Amino acid sequence: MLISELAQRTGVSVHALRHYERMGLLRPRRLANGYRDYAPQARREVVFIAMSRALGFGLPRIAEYLRAWRAGRIGPAELVDAMHERAREIDAQIAALQAQRTQALAHADWLRARQSEQDRARHGAPPRASWPRVRRASAP
After folding, report:
1. pLDDT tens series, the chain, 140 aa
2. The model's pTM
3. Which CATH architecture has domain 1-74?
4. 62 CB contacts (<8 Å, ≥6 apart)?
5. Which residue numbers delimit the HTH merR-type domain (predicted)?
C-alpha cells in the first residue's frame, strides 16, 4: 500500500510516516517509480508506534520493541510489562511535578509576604511582629 493509504488507514500523517522511516521504525520497499510500498503488517506497526508515542515512549525505545517483536524475541506479555513500567515512570513524574508545584507555591507565598513587608515599610508602618511559635503543652 502507498504512504497516503497507510496514513488514511492509521490516522498518522504522511509526514510522521516518513519520519518513522528515517528513524528506521518502518521499512517500506520502493517501487520502480520511487514510491514507498508498505506491506500489510505495516498498518499494525504504525498503530503500535502511534499508541506507544501516545503513552510517552520515545522513538528509540519503540524501535527496540519493534526489532524485538519482528525477531520474535518479545511477545504481548513483555509489552504489557513495558506498559506497566511506563505507568510507574509516569507516577514518578507526577510525584516530582507535585513536589515542584508545592515548592513553587511556597516560594510565591514567601515572596508575597516579603513584598507586603516592603510595602508597609515604604508607607512608614512599623514592621509587624512575627507570630509567636506555638509550643505543645508538656505532659505532667
Report:
1. 999 999 999 999 999 999 999 999 999 999 999 999 999 999 999 999 999 999 999 999 999 999 999 999 999 999 999 999 999 999 999 999 999 999 999 999 988 988 888 877 777 766 665 555 555 655 54
2. 0.69
3. Orthogonal Bundle (1.10)
4. 25, 48, 49, 52, 53
5. 1-68
